[in-house]
Amino acid sequence: MRALLVGLLAFILVTQAAAAAMQDPSATTPRKASVAKRTPTVNQQLERKLVAIRKYRGAIRFLKTHRALLSSSDRHVAAGSKLAYAERRVRQLEKTIATLRSKVRARDGQHLAAMPPKAAICSVFGSRCEEAVAVARCESKLSTTAQNGQYLGLFQMGSYERQLFGHGSSAREQAVAAHRYFVRSGRDWSPWSCGWAAA
After folding, report:
1. CA-based nearest residue to 166, from 149, 148, 182
2. 137-196, pLDDT tens digit by residue?
3. What is the span of the domain harbouring residue 155?
4. How many domains does the chain divide into?
């Protein structure tokens, strides 16, 4: 029992020290330029929050596994308070992590949407990149806004194909739709007038 109490106190001290280290601002006020350099990226913020939530979940597991600590008269209040605090921090961190992950997804989505045609095509088609770029160059001169009657975009997909496989204004969206069509057709370029053999 004594060993458990010592272990619990050591774990709590380590957890509090780590939390204080993450939250304690510098005693001196740095210049704005220094603050800008030290501002963590969204990815770094997310990683720190994930580390913190793992620590608090570990504390919760420890306290719940060693419930004797909560029921002992001399440590009941302290251990119960630590458990409640850890559970509250986990709930707060879950909300923060969800927000940060949403920001990461939005940023990554913007990055993908801004990709130039060739890079977008290669990111989707992988080892078939060279073929896909050649077909798109033949079909549209690598223009996302190319139009020939009902046929639109990089791969000049018709209205029926766009309904089935999707479309979009960005090169990435058009490449994804064309790849779906390509896979459905048996990884064959025959649906395109500029098939790989012709390209």
Report:
1. 182
2. 999 999 999 999 999 999 999 999 999 999 999 999 999 999 999 999 999 899 998 866
3. 117-184
4. 2
Euclidean distance between CA atoms 137 and 144, whole angstroms: 11
Q: Report phi then psi at 156, rounded to 5.
A: 45, 55
Is the CB of residue 152 less than 8 Å from the CB of residue 173? no
Residue 89, pLDDT > 70, answer yes
27 in a domain, yes or no? no
Residue 58 in any domain: the answer is yes
SS3 call for 162:
helix
Residue 70 lies in a domain: yes
The vertex-130 CA angle with 127 and 131, nearest 5°, equals 95
Other C-beta atoms within 10 Å of 168: how many? 15
Asked whether residue 194 is domain-assigned, the answer is no
How many whole angstroms separate alpha carbon 66 and alpha carbon 45? 32
Based on the domain organization, do 110 and 45 belong to the same domain?
yes
Residue 118 carries which side chain, given as an amino acid letter? K
Does pTM surpass 0.70?
A: no
